[in-house]
Amino acid sequence: MNRVFRNPLGMLLVCGLFVSSACGGKNNSPASKTLLEFLAISPSAESADYVKEKTQFQLHTLTTEQRHPRTWTLSDKVDTDLPAGLDMLFSVDEDVATRLAALSKDPGPVRTLSEAIEKALLERRKIYVYGTGATGRLAKQMESAFWRPYWRGVDNALKSKLEPHLGGGLEEKLVGEMTGADRALISSLEGFEDLQLIGRLQLKERGISKGDVVIEVTEGGETSAGIGTILGAHDQWKEATGYDVAEASKHLFFVYNNPDEVLLPFERSRSVIQEAGITKINLTTGPQAITGSTRMQATTIETFVLAHAVEDALGRIFKGLVAQQVLTAEDLAQLGFAEDMTLEQRLSRFATVLTEVKKAVPEIARLTRLEADTYMSGHFSTYFANIGLITTFTDGTERSPTFRLFPLDTVNEPTRKSLFQVWTSAKDRQAAWRTFLGRPFRGLQSDLYREPFSTQIQDDFLRKAALESLNKAGNEQQDLYDFSISDANVQRVGPKADDLGVMIALDTEAALLNDTSSDYDRFAALFQERGAKLGLVLVSGGPTPTWRGSASGAPFIHLRIAKMADPFGVDQQIALKILLNAHSTATMGRLGKIVGNTMTNVSPTNLKLIGRATYLIQLHVNDVLSGEEWKKLHGEREPITYAEANAVLFDVIPFVAEKKAQGDEAAAEVAVSIVRILESLRQNRSVTLDEALAQLRGGGLNAYLASVRER
User: Which of 287, 391, 473, 587 could form a disulfide with 68 if both were Cys (CB 3.0 to 4.6 A apart)?
Assistant: First the structure.
């Protein structure tokens, strides 16, 4: 067709001069109908409810939901110049360094938190850290990667000196909990995150009471479940005789990453920010490297600050006991606190950690390219970790909702679907959970939740989702997942030729890399014997060891970071987190899972993510429609509305769910929605969902958007 027929004005002029069958059909064109009429979509009841009633979850005004100017062209950069793309990602971590440098000069509320932890431990109270999604995994890390391993490493003679002053059961003093409990480590449980009620109920189930220190950690400052937790803890103070607002604020902490002024319009956030009985710790760094991906900078700074605050508190307790002649200087050294280190000095160390990670960009790029090529050729990865297990596991599981990948496979899957899996040194699945958590698996006791869910959740959609998720949150869920390097697991999901095995070693594990009796060497040997590839990440202050992959030139990243005045190993874990976050993001970028720096493959599993998905559909469609090339080819059209984008999204959600159940890796709600809209407008007909999905199979959404402007 001549280009004039693709222009509405040209069509109007031709129709004014001639009578033709083509002009007579103009009422069927997209320009003469609303988008939803053209696509033959009637907004579902859930979509209509979301647009009208769920405005408090439409969060695209938040700072963490904005596009970071330094990563605007990330998807193209990781494809054409991978080291430069990694540099681009790490440049956003500089925002964390800047914020921590300022905080180190005036720790303010972080010092208040450290002093509260010190006082609580001396009074034999609990420390309760709660989060949702990425911050929930942070809370689990606080307990299971920092607190419990530390106390397991303290010998009994030292514990016997400490217990008269701190009480027994030291491992149990810090409780890390997440929305949905341990099962939610694998993937989010739909409906839970949007309920303040569940935060209150979990607070009760874990036995947290007035006088305990409660730390609610939320990436954005608006997570309902977390807000329910901190308000529930505050109610314990308000309902007690002689409520003291100042004393309450010394026990209750709300940690978040958005400016107060952008959160205040949201009622649930406002109820916390304006409450004097809760101490606020605002760690805002700015937009994330990937728009809305708070698994990155937001949780990095929160983990770093909270873990060092706990270390700081323990250091003061132990030095106080030295002054009382309960402990000796030698005891202090054994406890890991021989060096004097102030809170200010702890917070200022982040820049050194980041610098060390950035030095490794060339070798990180080798691993990223190898992993992306592994997936593109239809193969899989297996990571092996022990000390770094939770950090590694968290990065891997969070790829699923961020990039719409299959979640970790259950033991019932006949063949692998998840691109990523993780193993650890354990003889079977139960032992693997104990290695992971440092304690038995802890699910939700459904009898404590079912009646409140049934009677206190007024929203029909949320009630239904929460009750369904409750059936997937109990202790029985542990039997569905096996992270062990057992013979049975090796036989079931072991490596095949051209798969990838990545070993993660921290600190003293360096010595195990060339120890033929270790599980590290066993893992490497297994992958080599089966024709698979290898990679290694080591974070330690010691010399670079040899290992099985040395001869073949396998990617080997060694971050030289020692555990100086850092008995928890916080700096090493943070370095690993920063590295893996950038590596996995760049890997997914090379697979076409991001567009620019936007999370176009996000899984819309809660109200916030539905809002993000809707906004991204609207953003990318309107970006194309406003382009000069599109307008020349297809004419001008009004931008699509938020309500239209949401209606299309809800129409696509069941289609993608069905495709995912069939094992379709390419299906993603945002991407299919965008393509369906643009292809329908481009072809002047309502394309089917299958046709839209087919457009994504070549190079993903990024490739489609690059080409559609010129077709």
Answer: 287
3-state secondary structure of 379: coil
What pTM was computed for the model? 0.94
Task: Give the domain ranges of the chain.
Answer: 1-32, 35-67+598-708, 74-84+364-428+482-590, 108-340
Please state, in angstroms and rounded to a whole number, the distance separating the CA atoms of residues 247 and 268.
Answer: 23
Fold designation for 74-84+364-428+482-590: Rossmann fold (3.40.50)
What is the chain's Cα-based Rg? 27
Work out whether strand 127-131 and strand 213-217 pair parallel, antiparallel, or are unpaired.
Answer: parallel
The 10 Å Cβ neighbour count of residue 37 is: 12
The mean per-residue pLDDT over the stretch 8-21 comes to 32
Separation of alpha carbons 118 and 127, rounded Å: 10
Q: How far apart are CA 453 and CA 464, in angstroms?
A: 9
Per-residue pLDDT at 29: 52
Whether the Cβ atoms of residue 130 and residue 206 lie closer than 8 Å to each other = no
pLDDT, tens digit, 9 for 90 and up, residues 468-497: 999 999 999 999 999 999 999 999 999 999
Count the neighbouring beta carbons within 10 Å of the beta carbon of residue 50: 24
Assess contact for 606 and 188: CB atoms under 8 A: yes
3-state SS of 482-533 is CCECCHHHHHHHCCCCCCEEEEEEEHHHHHHCCCCCCHHHHHHHHHHHCCCE
Helix ranges (DSSP H) in 106-244: 109-122, 134-141, 148-152, 156-166, 196-205, 224-238
Instruction: Give Cα separations from 282 to 233, 297, 298, 687 (angstroms).
Output: 19, 14, 11, 47
Give the pair of three-digit tokens for residue 693: 């999905």
- Tens of pLDDT, residue by residue over 220-252, are 999 999 999 999 999 999 999 999 999 999 999
486: amino acid identity, one letter? S
304: enclosing H helix or E strand: helix 297-323
Residues 360-380 as b/e (b if ≥16 CB within 10 A, e otherwise) read: bbebbbbbbbbbbbbbeeebb
| pLDDT attached to residue 698 | 73
Query: 30 pLDDT band (50/70/90 cuts)?
Result: low
Assign domain 108-340 one CATH number from 1.10.10.10, 3.40.50.10490, 3.20.20.150, 3.40.190.10.
3.40.50.10490
How far apart, in whole angstroms, are the C-alpha atoms of residue 694 and residue 138? 38
End-to-end, the C-alpha distance of the chain in Å comes to 12
Of 402, 577, 393, 352, the closest CA to residue 481 belongs to: 393
In degrees and rounded to multiples of 5, residue 420 shows phi and psi of -120, 140
Position 5 pLDDT exceeds 70: no
CA–CA gap between residue 262 and residue 265 (Å, rounded) = 7
The answer to whether 606 and 387 are in contact (CB under 8 A) is: no
Under a CB-based contact definition with an 8 Å cutoff, are residues 388 and 504 in contact? yes
Q: What is the DSSP string of 20-51?
A: -HHHHTGGGSGGGS-HHHHHT----HHHHHHH
Chain centroid, CA 570 distance in Å: 18
